[in-house]
Amino acid sequence: MARILVTGALGQIGSELVPALRQRYGVDNVVATDLKALQPSGAAALAPDDHLDCTEPNQLHEAVRRYDIDSIYHLAALLSASAEAAPQLAWSVNMSGLYNVLEVARAYGCQVFFPSSIGAFGPDTQRDMTPQVAVQRPTTIYGITKVAGELLCDYYASRFGIDTRGLRLPGLISYVAAPGGGTTDYAVEMFYHAIRYGRYTCFLSADTRLDMAYMPDAITGMVDLMAADASRLRYRNAYNITAMSVTPEDIAAAIRKHIPGFEIDYDVDPVRQAIADSWPRSLDDSAAHADWDWAPRYDLDAMTKDMLARLTEKLK
Ligand code: NAD
Ligand code: AKB
C-alpha cells in the first residue's frame, strides 16, 4: 500500500487532491502537510497532518522517515502572479523546495509528482497547439522555476533512477479552495462574482485565450499518471494536459446560459496580462492521451454547469 506525502496540501489543488488520495489509498496512508497551520477536521482529523516547510530539508527527511513515505506529491510553490511580486522568494520556495524533495526521494527511493504549468512556455513558443516538446524560454520567474524544475526531474530520473512524473497543468477551475495568486485566477473569481453579484470585472482582456481544466479532471490526471505503467511513459519532466482553450468572454457566455443577466467588464492588470500573453493559447496533449490515457470529462459547458451548481450550494 502506498504511503503518500503531500506538500502545500492546503492550497487550491491540495484541498481536493488529499481527500481523493485518502479515498483511494486510505486515510492513514496520506500525510497532508503545509507551511500554513493545518486545522484537522472531519476525515483529516483521523489522518496524520503536519506543518512542513519544503525549503527546510530536515523537515522533509523527518516527515518521510516518520511516516515511512514512498510517494510525494510536491504541490508547495508560489504561483505566477505571487512569484512575479516576490521573485527571490519564488526561486527559494519553487526551486529549493523541489530540490529538497528530489534529494529526499533519492535518499529514500520515493516516487515524485511535480506540477509544472503552461507557464513553463514563453513568447518564443508556438502558441497554438503547443507541442509536448517545444521551445521553453519563459519570461516570468514562475516559468523559469517550472522549466528548471522539469529539467531537474528529468535529471533525477535518468541519473539516479528516481520515478519522477509531472504535468504541465493549465489554469484550474474549482470551488473547494480559492486559487493562490495565479494569472488564471480570474476564471474562478468570475463564478463567485456571477453568483454573488451578477457581474464581474476581469483583470485579463476579453479575448485572452488560455488552456483550462476543471479540478476533478486535473485530480484524476495526477492520480492516474502516478499509477500509470512506467514502461509507457516517454516523458519524465511533465506532460501537457488540457480540457478547454477559452477566453474570459467564452466563460462569461457559458455562465450566461444559467444566469442570463450576468455582466462582465474589463479592467486589465498589465502585469497579469503580460504573463498571460506570454503563455500558449492551446496545448497539444496527445502524448498524455497516448502514454497514460488522459481523458478529461469536463468541457466548458459541463464544467460551468457543475461549477455553478456546487458553488451556489457552497455559498448558501
Ligand atoms: P496554492 O497557492 O493554492 O497552494 C500552494 C500551497 O503551498 C499553499 O497552501 C501554501 O501555504 C503552500 N506553501 C507555500 N510555501 C510553502 C513552503 N515553503 N513549504 C510548504 N508549503 C508551502 O497552489 P495550487 O494552485 O494548489 O498549486 C499547487 C502546485 O500546482 C504549484 O506548484 C503550482 O505551480 C501548480 N499549478 C497550479 C495550477 C492552478 O491553476 N492551480 C496550474 C498549474 C500549476
Ligand atoms: C497560474 O496562473 O499561475 C497558475 C498556472 C496556470 O500555472 N494557475
UniProtKB/TrEMBL annotation:
It comes from the Bacteria. Coiled coil: none annotated. GO terms for molecular function: L-threonine 3-dehydrogenase activity. GO terms for biological process: L-threonine catabolic process. Transmembrane segments: none annotated. Pfam families: Epimerase (PF01370). Residues 4-241 form the NAD-dependent epimerase/dehydratase domain. Belongs to the NAD(P)-dependent epimerase/dehydratase family. This is NAD-dependent epimerase/dehydratase family protein. It comes from Hyphomicrobium album.
